[in-house]
Queue: 4 jobs
Job 1
Amino acid sequence: METVGILGGTGPAGRGVAIRLASAGYDVVLGSRDAQRAGDVATTLAVRGAGSVSGGSNEDAAQCDLVVVATPWDSAVATVAALRAPLFGKTVVSMVNALAREGRELVPMYPARGSMAAQIAFALPDSTIVGAFHHLPAAQMEDLDSGLDADVVIFSDSDPARKHVAELVDQMPGLRAIIAGSMSLASPIEAFTAVCISINIRHKAHSYVKLAGLGH
């Protein structure tokens, strides 16, 4: 089974993805600018299943077969650009949302190329970019007993890559993959994360996206 690296994986979003990947049998490397911190965080995760979570530098995570970008949005491009060589030819999954807080709401930011996925794709011309994991509540992702039953909306210009990521997502407990389409959908999909978080702030809830009527 392929290994998965998570750049900036020590935050809540990265930890949640890591735990559910490990529960699906994947060996995951949490990447960080501080490898020691990543190792410390990895030891705190309550992993179930046949997989594992270890810590390392972002460079260590970039050596994995498939790589997820979970850094803050304002450092994502610089992080991946510095790793262009080890990410050459690989599928890179962006879960990055450009958001800013205004009062009790989050509002979407629109990068120069319209989305963070497009910004990352420009920085990594020799990698294949897939968008996924945008609308998930981090606390519920990290808690395998939360009862999470969420859909993960996936987009990419590469049909084989988005199908591959969908197969990976479908193995993760509590998640169902929904392929939306091409990178042209990146901006609205990323921006909708602001709606999800703002609703949760207003209602003191942990809601998530679930699409009905798809028949699977």
Note: Helices lie at 12-23, 35-44, 58-62, 73-81, 116-123, 138-142, 159-171, 186-203.
Job 2
Amino acid sequence: MARILIIEDEAMLARNMRESLALTGHDVSCAGSGEAGLDEAERHAPDVVLLDLRLPGIDGLDVVRELQRRGSSASVVVMTAYGNVDSAVEAIRCGVSDYLTKPLDLRELDLVIDRVLQHRRLAANLEYFRSREQQSASLDSLIGESPPMQAVKQFIRRIVATPALSSEMAPPMLLTGETGTGKDLVARAVHYAGPRRDAPFVHLNCTALPEHLVEAELFGHVKGAFTDARGDKRGLFEVADGGTIFLDEIGHMPAALQAKLLGVIEHRRIRPVGGTVERKIDIHIIAATNRNLVEAIESGAFRDDLYHRLRVLTIHLPALSARGGDIDLLAEHFVRLYAGRFGLSVAGLAPAALARLHAHDWPGNVRELSHTLESAVLITDGPQIQPEHLNLEPPAGETRMSIELTGDQVIELDFAGGNARLEDVEYRIIRAALDYAKHNVSRAARLLGISRDAVRYRLEKYEKEHGPQD
């Protein structure tokens, strides 16, 4: 249950409260003055403090302030005589959780304690999930060391370090790029790295709702605005007040709403559907699209003025195919993530599997890579993922070829399988020429059209790096 501290100078009342709360399983201690109560709170770190406002020595409000100064996480419930409710109200302004009037009803005491503890549990859960969200959406979660990703991260760091995003007229941001490039992750990274990190982050996919519901979802509605509007409802703009709203797939927003969104950006005011009063909001708007908005403007599907207002700050997310070695980093991350999530002992990818990843075009970008490796982790039957576990189509064009050498030797090349390194092929050709020339280096060099020194150098270099080969 909970650790409860009672600070009450009436010994009989304190004892009755302690016995009542102990019966429900709480660990209860008592103090007869504000000073003694502060010492007890320092020693035992209570979850709840039941505090009389009128105490000998320092009074209850001073105890509240001192607990806060010391960084106590306890929820405080103040107790006061019926005629001094104003004092309890003042205590609420100081941050206490609830109050009780004397004479106390022990059943009401139990209800208040249960309510305070339930609120603490909810607050703790909320803080846990908020902390996890912040960690998973930090700049460090943007995996990649390629020049395009370094440029993206540097741009975000520069923007969040300015006071621009915290201003009442925070400039909008537009994220562009192909499907699956991580626009949602970048939007969250901007929010949680910026000055609005402690306020809400609200995500709306503009294609996820029927057109006639998007306006009510964004702006809210008043009772009776339409058939199913049985009461007032806050829209997502209001829910995000003080924080960030992320409008995904903005390129598919209905034309009628585009004009209203432009008004919100310009004036930071909204009017609920069916309402007559405008409400002021303070939000940062991030929009994202995989659609070519210039082409959408030319076809009349997107407003030119809204486009130019949104693109004050623009981040283009590169396709995975343009990120080079980031595939290795992302693959390692996803294998570790899914192996841990499912409790599987998958250590990584075999070289041939990694080569298959590099050979794939990735039209679905990082999202496709993530899903591919999630599946591979689940179906692999060994410590390493093999090419056959990836379930990827072979690259376009012929992936296998054979080179016939003298003496019935054949070099099999499989570009998709990762065993077509030029240095390996060169070494095997030189060895085949030497075998044919009965190890006469000069003759082998003439056959290959290179010098004797070149033959020796290439053999020695390869064997130094890889050891002698049979």
Note: The radius of gyration is 34 Å.
Job 3
Amino acid sequence: MKKINIGLLGWGTVGTGVVKILQSNSALIARRLGASLFIKRIADLDLERDRGIKVDRKILTRDARDVINDPGIDIVVELIGGYEPAKTYVLESLEAGKRVVTANKALLARDGDTIFEAAQRAGLEIGFEASVGGGIPIIRSLSEGFVGNRIQSILGIINGTANYILSRMSEEGEEFVTILKGAQKKGYVEADPTIDVEGIDTAHKLAILIRLAFGTKIKLKAIYTEGITRITPLDLAFANEFGYRVKLLAIAKRDKAGIEARVHPTMLPQNSLLAGVRDVFNAIYVTGDAMGPMMLYGQGAGMMPTASAVVGDVVEIARSLLGGGAGSKPTYLASKGLKVKDMEELVGQYYLRFWVVDRPGVLAQISAILGKHQISIASVIQKGRRVGKAVPIVIMTHEAREGEIRRALEKIDRLQVVRDKTVFVRIENRLN
């Protein structure tokens, strides 16, 4: 039986998962592939930590170029993460004639043009299924399964950490900081969760999805990005009363005027499929002109789901190698960028939560300012009475332009009766 040799760059959590799968399911994979997958070299700076698996110490190295320059290695798997040295190693691997598999969403979001152009020049495959959605096959779906569709929209819950925190806040009524600390103690959240809770990780993944779905280049700074740190249990409770749940949502929509590209907390109807996605699970809701709406759901992170996606890419590239390297190679090169709509152009419904002094006429002052900016009120909640004290007033609007919402809130927040900056959350009622 023919043997396909693999070199691993990075032996952390996902790298350990890849080795586990290739060890435990080696016979199954060989039977399905018609060849055996063999890990020839592993490069990592830390070779002493116990990963709970046994490998031949002779294949270990601290020098990544021992892998890249090994003529016997067919596929290089990059699991280092970050921009450098990962970018250099990926490009050097392609230059050395190696096929590449990576889970590096940050690298592809920022330097995708460079990476994909290098792969195209070399005539080599590059697999990156694990870069978005962990074990969810969204990359393969967009590049192959949905290829006959004009994709109209993508809405995704694609960061398990943020979804876990919002789920726990909603169900337990605890503050963001309390839930975050508990999750860190359990090992569910990184010591520094900034890229997760501020929406940066989600924006990286959305940039990749936009490239595949719309065939357009997009810079990370063009994606409006807002995290979940200002959301409170009070907001989640009010959302529930109105029949919504709050999720950190990645949104990409296309029409004749351009594309929307945004990441922010979003209220979704409780009866929608996306609203029911809890804890660390991910889901991606895609609408195409031919297929209509389609949702992919599963574990979006973690050792084994992500490693599963990596192994899937390795097997797909191995099949091409077995066929003489003449298999189809999807092109991920993007065309000239479509216009990205400014957030001020967005039209939608909004949840507004004001913290105001409880006295007569306050709601009238707020309503007057909203009215001057063509913002119509759909419903209002004001609970309890604490005369002279601060109380919340919650307003749900009809459709309004975001630019007008922002200008109205600037004026409202300057009122003497307003005690804190207004919290506003966008509402997504139409999911396709």
Note: Residues 270 and 276 are 7 Å apart (CA to CA).
Job 4
Amino acid sequence: MNKSSILVIDDEPPIQKLLEITLKSNDYKVQLASNSKDGVIAAAIHPPDLIILDLGLPDEDGQQTLLKLREWYNNPIVILSARDTESEIVQALDNGANDYLTKPFRAGELLARIRTALRLVHTSEGSVK
């Protein structure tokens, strides 16, 4: 049983629903936020094990949200965005994203990337001290 928690910050209801169904069916706990403000608040109140962040948010550019989160949030952040230019991807990775996946995406690949990010966190937690 997995039960890692994932916060999805994405303003598209069909993507939110797809991610919620996919993640819950793979035994993840899921929180949803439709904008940057709600996402940052949700992450602060109930820090998830991983955040999936869209860059095209209605209230703030996702790159700015990423920078805000990285001021205090140390767990993995996976970008899931329609933005697919190399400069956007490089900027997100330089701003602290652990991984970047473009929409449309394959659910199996996203799940594998989530497992990898969470495994790296658990491995480093176990080996550092």
Note: The first strand starts at residue 5 and ends at 9.
